[in-house]
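FIELD: query
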Amino acid sequence: METSLAGTDLPKTAEQAVTIFSDKEWWAGIGATGLKIVAIIVIAVIFKYIIKAAVANIFKVRLKSPLRLSEKRENTLFRLLNNVATYVIYFIAILAILGEFMDVRGILAGAGVLGLAIGFGAQNLVRDIITGFFIIFENQFSVGDTVRIASFEGTVEEIGLRTTKIKSWTGELHILPNSSITEVTNFSVHNSIAVVDLSIAYEEDIDKAQRIIEDVVKRVKPDYPEMVKDPEVLGVQMLGASEVIIRVTSEVLPMTHFKIARELRKTLKLELEKAGIEIPYPKMVTYHKEANSKENKNKMEG
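FIELD: result
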C-alpha cells in the first residue's frame, strides 16, 4: 500500500523540514558553501606559508648584505612580520567565511562601534601597545642592552607590546608600562671610555711618572681584548691640595669600562711602586714652639 506525504497528518514544521531536506537545490547550496569554506581555509594556509617563506628569504638575503642589522634586531623583526602577516590573513579568511552566511558590512560596522567603545575604556592599554610596537620597530633598545629609563637602570630582560622588564645589577626586576617610557639612555650602542685618575705626590718627577704610565698601558693593551684603541695618557688633569692627578683614558667595548678601569688602576699602582713613585697619602707636620725657642737660646749662648 502506497502512502504519500500529502495524506499524512504530520505537523506543519515537520512537513517544512522534510521539504527542505528533500530539496536537491538546498543540498547543492550547502555543498557549494562547504566547498567555498574549505577553499578559503586552504588558500589562507597556503598564503601564510608563502608569506613566511618570502620573509625568511628576505632576511637570508640581508645576512649577506654589508649593511645587515644586528642578530637580535633581525630576529625581533622576523617574528613581528610573521605574526602580523598571520593575523591579517586569518582575519581576512574569517570575514570571507562569515560572508557566506551573513552580510559582513553589518559585522564590520558593529566591530567599529565596539572597538571605539573599547578604545575609550582602555586608552592606556592602546598607548602601551602602540609605544611597544615603535620601540621594537625603531630598535630603540634590545634584550640584553643596559639602559636607564627614568630612575631605573639595568639590563633589559624582556620587551613586550605592553610592558618592558629591566633587571637592575642588584637583582630587582622592574616592570614598566611602555607608555611610561618617554626617555631612554642606552649604554650598549656605542663604545665606552674607561677613565683612570692617578695621584702623584708633588715631590715626585711628573715627567718620569708619565713615561712609566705610557710604557705600562702600551704593554698591557694585548692582555685586554675589550680595548678598542690604545690607552692614552692625557697628562696632568688637576692640581690637588697634596697631589698631582694624571688622567689615563681608553676606548673599550660597551659596558666594559668599569672592568678595564679597575684593572688599569691595579697595574699602574704596582708599577709606580716598583719605580719608587710615591702615591700621596695624608700627612701631618707638628711644630713645637717651646723646643725651637730653647734651641735658638742655646745657640745664642754658645
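FIELD: remark
The chain is about 50% helix and 15% strand.
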